[in-house]
Amino acid sequence: MGRGNVCVTGSYEGLFYIDNDDLRVYRRNDPYAKEEETSLQRDLSCEDFSSGEWLLDEVGSSYEEEDVLECFCAELRKLCPSFQPAANSNVWLGNERRVILENELFYICVEDNEWSLAVELVQKDGYSDCESTWMAGLQKRRYRGYLDSMKKALLARLPSIGVRTGPWTHGTITREEAGVC
After folding, report:
1. DSSP letter string, 6-73
2. How confident is the model at residue 37 (pLDDT cuts 50, 70, 90)?
3. What's the pLDDT tens digit per position in 13-26?
4. Among 12, 43, 86, 178, which is disulfide-ready with 99 (CB 3.0 to 4.6 Å)?
5. Helix (H) or strand (E) run with residue 164 in it
6. Closest to 98 measured CA to CA, from 65, 145, 129
7. What's the CA gap between 67 and 78, in Å, rounded?
8. pLDDT at residue number 1
9. Which residues pair with 123 in a beta bridge?
10. Is the predicted pLDDT of residue 114 greater than 90, yes or no?
11. CA atoms within 13 A of residue 153's CA, in its CB half-sphere
């Protein structure tokens, strides 16, 4: 399985992936250490994992994910002030997507993708056919700019992000490739 398992289906939707290498925190298995040593998964080698020296720190990983998403939301709101935080931290679209930001046209959601965390731009629906048609015109005009801002906001905190290239496949965008430093 690839990191690109999740996809969006709307005409004016898109997504990026935050690799678990940038979210999973491990701690050294040393009960006698004065200070706990931690490391992101991306900074550990295969030998580190096979040695049994490093253990997954689930609490540290949840804090890291929360920090990455807080930084993303703050940066995106600077770039796109129309986006506001979701009404509360428990707003879901369906069973899988948790809404973290929204404006009049779109939701920004996160979804677990097994190997990564998908950050999605999802179209809102209108209350009537007429309103949906009107919204689709505005969404068409705005979504590329919003996706570009999402990419910049993610790369402000992360060294690289994933993009969907097809079923079960993904590509990677680095800060350098995107011109974000």
Report:
1. ----STT-EEEEEEGGGT-EEEE--TT-SS--EEEGGG--HHHHHTT-EEE-HHHHHHHHHHHHHHHH
2. very high
3. 999 999 999 999 99
4. 86
5. strand 160-166
6. 65
7. 17
8. 38
9. 106
10. no
11. 26
Angle of helix 129-155 relative to helix 58-79, nearest 10 degrees, comes to 110
Contact yes or no for 48/80 (Cβ under 8 A): no
Mean pLDDT calculated for residue range 103-109: 96
Question: Where are the domains positioned within the chain?
Answer: 14-178
Tokens of 110: 């996160």
Q: Residue 169: which residues within 8 A CB-CB, separation 6 or more?
A: 2, 4
How far is residue 34 CA from its own chain's centroid? 34
pTM value is 0.90
Do residues 124 and 131 make contact, with C-beta atoms less than 8 angstroms apart? no
Residue 108: CB atoms within 10 A of its CB come to 25
Cβ contacts of residue 96 below 8 Å, gap of 6+? 111, 112
Rounded CA separation 51/168 (Å)? 31
